[in-house]
Amino acid sequence: MKKKRRIVLSIARVLLCLFFVLPGNARAGLDGNRTQIAADAQKLGLVAGPVTNENGYSTVTLTLPATSPLSMNGRKTLTVREFFDTGGTIFAVAWEGSLPPDLSVLLGDKITRVPQKNLSPYRHQLLVQTPDLKLRVIGTARFRAGNAWVPARLPPGFRTDQIRVLAP
């Protein structure tokens, strides 16, 4: 019995050490890394466009192709724009379209800051303001738009009114 207990304790120590030594999984969404943008696009059923470099940050636009089964022959739309700093960290996202995006993909770990009752797709307005997340969602049954950002990650001189999807 003592031998089993020692083995179990040894395994627990090893696992605990590995937990603190190994790097965490790369996560997508806010505070994620730009290398995860392709994974975001795939999870949302979107296609990533080219990266656009701005003053101190970059953006990439993800769009729903008309050939996608989600688009219902081009009748449904979804466009997402992700913003990342020079270090590659995603600090903001914006979206618009007739399909609501999966906020768990766009917000990543920050989704825990949004009360579960507020995640209903039938909500027409949502405003969440915490020290580490700002989230705005507006919409109707046929169109939704929104944006989210991490205030501490905004590049110097960046204005929050820039967090939007640009018209084609």
What does this 3D model show about the protein?
Keywords: Signal. Residues 1-28 form the signal peptide. This is DUF2844 domain-containing protein. The protein has a 7-stranded antiparallel β-sheet with strand order 1-2-3-4-7-6-5, with helices on one face. It has helices spanning 2-21, 37-44, 103-107; strands at residues 47-53, 57-63, 78-85, 90-97, 125-130, 133-139, 144-149. The longest helix is centred in the N-terminal third of the chain and has 20 residues, at 2-21. Strand 3 and strand 4 (90-97) form a beta hairpin. It is built from 3 helices and 7 strands. The chain is globular. It is of the alpha+beta class and 168 residues long. The protein has one domain. The model is unreliable at 4-27 (pLDDT under 50).
Spatial strand sequence of the major β-sheet: 1-2-3-4-7-6-5
Radius of gyration: 19 Å
Overall helicity: 10-25%
Low-confidence stretches: 4-27
Query: What characterizes the major β-sheet?
Result: 7 strands, antiparallel
Organism: Leptospirillum ferriphilum (strain ML-04)
Protein name: DUF2844 domain-containing protein
InterPro entries: DUF2844
Signal peptide: 1-28
